[in-house]
Amino acid sequence: MNQLTPQQWHERAIGAERNGDPAQARTVIGQGLAQWPDNADLHNDAGSLTLRVGDAADAETLFARANSLAPDNPEFAINRAIALGRLERHEEACDLLAEIESQAQALPRYWSARGNTARAARWMDDAARSYDRCLALEPQHPRGLHGRARVAIERGETDAEARFDTALALNPGEPDLWLGKAQALDVAGHSTAARQIMEQVTAQAPGWLDGLKFLAQLKLAAGEGDFAGHYHEAARRHPADPNIPYAHAETLAGLDFATEAAEVAAEARTRFPQQPGFALLEAVHAGSAGDDERAGAIFAGLALDEPQRWVQEARHHIRSGEFERADRLLQRALEHEPWSIAAWALRGVVWRLIEDPRVEWLHGQEGLVQRLPLGGSDDLLGRVVAKLRELHANSPLPLGQSLRGGTQTRGILFDRTEQVLAELRAAILETIGDYQAGLPAVDETHPLLRHADAPLRLAGSWSVRLTGGGDYHTAHIHPQGILSSALYLIVPEDAQGELQRGWLEIGRPPPDLRRDLAPLATIRPEPGYLALFPSTLYHGTTPFGDAERMTVAFDVVPVAGQTP
Q1: Which of 410, 440, 526, 541 is nearest to 484 (CA)?
Q2: Which of 337, 367, 397 is the last residue of a domain?
Q3: How many Cβ atoms sit within 10 Å of the Cβ of residue 309?
Q4: Which of 166, 169, 165 is nearest to 182 (CA)?
């Protein structure tokens, strides 16, 4: 048999893929690579096929090989960066694309990919510049228009709505563009028009989860009690889609409707008996609602053996007073996911309940909880407050957050373009450096102290404004970071009194655990001061009166590539 050319191997693989046999397609192209191990195009073709079937790790390896064989072809590096993005290695992808700028700068696809990658890494200035370069080369580039519109709304640019209109004129069938248009309208105060768009789009695409969630947010902002009712209609129209009831339950549970969330999960459990995740979801929300017997019966027969189940079952055993059993489950979870913030947070609670001395190592060491003065110019706080009041004027009560009353700014606060927010961010980073200087020594076994001298960056960021009597944050954690925060900008006068109104309580368990442990620390709010503490510590606030209170908060994570 004559040896096939690389192109022939590629065509055979594509034929198998088109016939609905992706496994055979990968086998065929693997045979081709065995015959042509130094052919860059075939490695690139193999990477593209592999990425299409969802194996980003193997695809990245194949693209990297193509790139090494033909370093002068920027397309291979671009494809590798896309695969890195699928693997959540966004900073690495950004660095790779920056390295090939000189050879790829005439390619619109390069700038579009770089914009997408920079946006995923939250390098928003680079994202905006990259999309602009893409559109300068090809003004009607669909992904460039879409990405630039997204960056505009995320950075708070005033032309976001117009950018979405331009992108929609080219691609009117893209739901995410209609979502962006609706979000831009809502930001501008045109919530009725935003809702009309979302009702029309979700009627046409009832299984579109992002649209269903934003419609729920709009209904919540309008004060509707049945803010999640449209999920029922979506599930009726798409009865085979398990993602709809899952999202429905989580939307309800995020605002303490645990009983209703459990019922949604129970109904889905009946419709999807082969998916044990719904049984876990029902057990989680039934237990949170106080139905321990129902939760216990589900856990006893649950055919799911993974860290998420062990962590949630540990919560159940904390409620039922079986602390040692809970500790064993958390130990098992940490053996599989050693740095799970949720598991460490619950373990801290359990260790306090069983008086395990290790709780002192985890949460009691001097310097883990600090209140520090914020640096920056003397007038910084005043200018920040003025800007945030503008943003809060049209900000909603968010879905799925700890806030009970008040408003929270949209999106990621420090993605915005205002200079005063950039100054605030710089002052916060400087203060985080002061916090690190006051930490105990590096401890590779500790979930926070393993990063004690590592470079850190800000992740999510937002501002909260509370004005109604009795507003507060329920006890919660931020599992996406290693360090949590509260920066005080405006503090009511009654926060200074003996009743400790609006004080930050650190270490008090969340209400659903039903364990009355006192906080490990309380922090009196004071304008211009920043509280920093491990993300493994539950935290919330006490209620206060009807005066204004404003804070900024954020998560802190290690700089990519710096995790021990």
Answers
A1: 541
A2: 367
A3: 21
A4: 165
Q: What residues have CB less than 8 Å from 299, skipping those under 6 apart?
A: 283, 313, 316
Nearest to 488 by CA among 465, 458, 517: 465
351 and 400 fall within a common domain: no
Distance CA(17)–CA(245), nearest Å, equals 32
Domain span including residue 74: 1-87
Separation between Cα atoms, residue 442 and residue 444, nearest integer Å: 6
pLDDT digits (tens, 9 = 90+) for 520-554: 999 989 999 999 999 999 998 887 767 788 999 99
For residues 290, 293, 295, 297, the Cα torsion angle rounded to the nearest 10 degrees is 180
- Looking at residue 459, which CATH number applies to its domain? 2.60.120.620
Residues 167 and 356: their CA atoms lie apart, in Å, by 58
Nearest to 533 by CA among 474, 478, 465: 478
Is residue 175 included in any domain, yes or no? Answer: no
3-state secondary structure of 463: strand
492, 506: one domain = yes
Question: By the 8 A CB rule, do 231 and 245 touch?
Answer: yes
The predicted model gives 210-230 an average pLDDT of: 92
Q: Name the pTM for this structure.
A: 0.88
Regarding whether 339 and 431 lie in a shared domain, the answer is no
Tokens of 16: 């198998």
- Considering the domain architecture, whether residues 360 and 451 belong to the same structural domain is answered as no
How many C-beta atoms surround the C-beta of residue 169 within 10 A?
11
Same domain, 325 and 428: no
Q: Given this model, what pLDDT does residue 376 score? A: 87
- Between CA 468 and CA 546 the distance in angstroms is 5
CA 268 to chain centre: 25
Please tell me the predicted confidence (pLDDT) of residue 404. 47
Q: How far apart are the first and last CA of the chain?
A: 52
Beta carbons of 341 and 479 less than 8 angstroms apart: yes
How does the average pLDDT of the chain come out, rounded? 92
- Number of domains composing the chain: 3
In a domain, 138, yes or no: no
If asked whether residues 432 and 534 sit together in one domain, one would say yes
Considering the domain architecture, whether residues 405 and 358 belong to the same structural domain is answered as: no
Q: Are residue 546 and residue 457 in the same domain, yes or no?
A: yes
| Domain end (from 53, 87, 121) | 87
Cα separation, 362 vs 347, in Å, equals 9
Alpha carbons 72 and 80: distance in angstroms, whole number: 14
Residue 337 lies in a domain: yes
Q: What is the pLDDT of residues 430-488, one digit of tens each?
A: 999 999 999 999 999 999 999 999 999 999 899 998 876 555 557 889 888 999 999 99
pLDDT confidence bin for 346, thresholds 50/70/90: very high
